[in-house]
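Quick one: structure for this chain?
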Amino acid sequence: IFGDRNVKSYNGVPISKNAHEQDFCSVNPKFVAVVAEQIGGGAFFVFRTDKVGGVDTGSCKISKHNGAVYDIRWNPFNDNLIGSACDDGLIRLWNITDEKGVEPNHSPVQTLKGHGKRVGGLQWHPSADNVLASWSYDNTVKLWNAETSHVISNLEGFKNQITDFDFNLDGSQMATTCKDKTLRIFDTHTGSVAIEGPGHNNMKVSRLRTLKSGLILTAGFSSMSSRCLRLYDPRNLSGILKEEAVDNANGSLFPYYDPDLNLLFLAGKGDANIKFYELENGDIFYLNQYMSGDAQRGLGMMPKRGLDSGINEIARAYKLNVAKKLVNVVPLKVPRQSKAFAEDLYPDTAGYQPALTAEEFAGGKNAPPKLVSFLELQSANATSKGFTATSAPVNGEASAEIAALKKELDALKSEVTSVKQDLKERTDEVEGLRKENEELKGKLKASQEEIAELQKNGVDASQVGSD
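Got it. Here's what it folds into:
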């Protein structure tokens, strides 16, 4: 695998310098999104993939966040829909049209509310349409129906900050890493922990990917603080199947997994290189690496459907260079003498069509992604499919929740009516007392006038009663 040395770049991009451990870049065949450096609130840029070079950051910035942006992710089944995770605890969904791109005062089409603290990461379900997962500093993971904003399930039990999560192939389970040094696998429907075991014995950030074989690959630090890769069997997390040393650098690792070719692209925060590994038969094989002179803040990786098979491009990295304000576009290729389509490099891959609706997933169904041929995929187009934000329930649980809320509302209305009646009775009582008080005042005034008249006539008023 070789990286193109003559890279193209987006120039003049003020990339976020926030210390949050995310890659700050998300890519699809139409757009490149990059988290922006901004004082006050948060923002991200959206650039077109076919317009590389100098950019007008003022016309392509989405700024309507009340805090720093921590993660951005494009919907795998809709190239025009992107989610952003924010310091204010909200998740916002944005529709970017092909024609207009980012518009002035661009507003979200949906806002997901439910986390108690800032949201640190997002991931879309691999086969169910509009199902989005989020992890937060409130130490929970939530799975959402993005269209209805309904929470499908909650994953809890973390004893420290979550650092990463990943769905398995059919989305029935989610593996997580955490600063409590525990590796957990959850049932995504019930939210219960299916199995857990010891993870990397180090407080530094570790990340993970679930492989096509079902094995769990983690990228983190050993007890001696050296960087390493590990493989775990999801049926028994008590032991490590394989550990591969990487190096002794300090930056956290970003693993990018290609399930079609069983390749791992490994980048480190602050590194200048990208390492390539092959994952086969429960083992990790180092291949080679791409070297450059520019340190990377993070990477965005182009999905398979956006690659150029004419040059045998098997991956494309978008490297964030904070110091030079660059987003470098690096095609990663396997050179061949033949100009024919290389079928071995482009097996059937996940397409634009989801295998499940959000309602089907919420109802308990699972399915692997629908696979299509690479050539068919390149001729397809994941144009906006009419994403509509609603508040409709997606299953019986939501209906029951609404019914309970209505019952509670009826009880509150009844209580208000009772309070109003009690208030009316007390008001009438006060009015009666006021009238009685007025009558007493009148009698007192009459008595005072009578006493004054008697005193005027020389009669001792104190003797009137006794006489």
